[in-house]
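User: I'll paste a sequence; please echo it back and then give the predicted structure.

Assistant: Echoing your sequence first, then the prediction.
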Amino acid sequence: MMLAAVLLAMAGQAAAQDVHQARVDLGEPAQGYAFYNRPGATVAEHNAELARCAADTWFGEDGQEFRRMGLAYELFWGGTARAVPVVKTENCMIARGWRVFELESAEGAAVAGLSGAALAERAGPWLGAETPPGRLVRSFTNQLARPNGYGTASRPRPASPGHISLKIFMEGDASVELPLLDLRAVFKQPRAKTLRWPQLPEPAPGNAIVIMRLSGTHYALAFEQDVEDSAPLGQSFGAMPSRNGRWVAVEVPAGRWRIARIQSLNLCFGSPAFEVAAGEVVYAGHFDTAGARLGPDLDLAPVRAAVQGPVVERLRPAVYRNGSTGDCNMPNIGYALEFPGAEFEPGYRGGSVAAAPAP
């Protein structure tokens, strides 16, 4: 059985449904007769990218060649959890520049009934078309920068068994090898030292202080230390917001710090990061996790008025750069976030850098 058959098994037997929503759902795969599209892409590129995304987002203990029957069985009996590997793969495709289109029911059913050369001749050109048929249902538009415009399903529906891209993938006989994962690291990330607010001490040698403020209702936000793959697991810090704004101050090792998670979303495909040197006091900003704009608001006046201690004299705003990446082989769903106006890391090829325009 080929990899696409596994993804179809993970998709389950859900019928095609209308996915028009006031809020974009980043935690559920596209419904109906969907297919992935990137202008100029070939069928081979589509299949290779889908295989790469499946491997890059897999979370499990088996690092050997993909045991497709075993995986399909496990995920098929996983209830709503069988939708998670599908949406993780789909979010990866979107973060790497692919769009998701859905055919109307009659045309979709006709195409889904094809196979072999007939399927390739009919649907293959759509994968790289500038204006493919159907309606655009998903693409990267930096949704996480607008907290009141997206959500993540608590009980996601699996994708339709009529998913066109997965059938094309299956016809292409694609395969994938999974990385060898150390699952212990996921649960052993050390936490940065939280400081008592508002009286802040001097940081220890080699360390710095980072301050942030979180407003909203329920979306937590977390940072993590950006370390090389060969280095020990970096520290992290984060907090839940409050309606009136929660101040958080932490003592951290000097270095580069990236936004790692918002709510349950893993920002492994790209997120803003900033540098902090030893002895510095950096304001990461005020984040509104429930409003029309996440932020950050880097105005120093509110934090200067709130914090106490001599460190306030060294306070400066964080300077963010988009495009830091993390580990997507995690249990939670991945996506990307960008701060409008911030520069990008050299060589970054995801998010809005890769996104195709709307047709």
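The chain has two domains: 3-171, 183-354. The CA atoms of residues 126 and 296 lie 39 Å apart.
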